[in-house]
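Support reply, case 0932

Customer input (verbatim):
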Amino acid sequence: MAWSELFAMALANSLVIFGINKATAFEFCHPDDNGSDFCDGDGVDKDSKMVLYRFRLWSIQSLGNFWSKPLFTCPPCMASVHSTYFYWGLMPATQESLILYPLYVLGLSGLVALINSVTKYGNS
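Our regenerated output:
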């Protein structure tokens, strides 16, 4: 696979990562607001819920903040998990692709961090 194809794959993978991050986004209510009309039973601001917010909420409640980072909450960290199905779904299983995979993850993480900082997307 040519480097330009690998970069195009990383660019597409980064869009998937940002999509997952945004689609699972929500904000917790301020502790003073819990029990108000603006908060649900889990302490989540009702107006902040995105369509797949329950996945992130489950992850935070079940796995904790640290282990939720590579799944939903930290776009550069998400490269470690969300590169697996993308990379191995498109790359043939060869010795060369096995050697390239760690470099792909590092490059993808860097690309996502760069896009994140340039666009001021934030870590929601």
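We compared this against your earlier run and they match. Two observations from our side: The mean pLDDT is 92. Residues 3-119 form one domain. Please reopen the case if you see a mismatch on your end.
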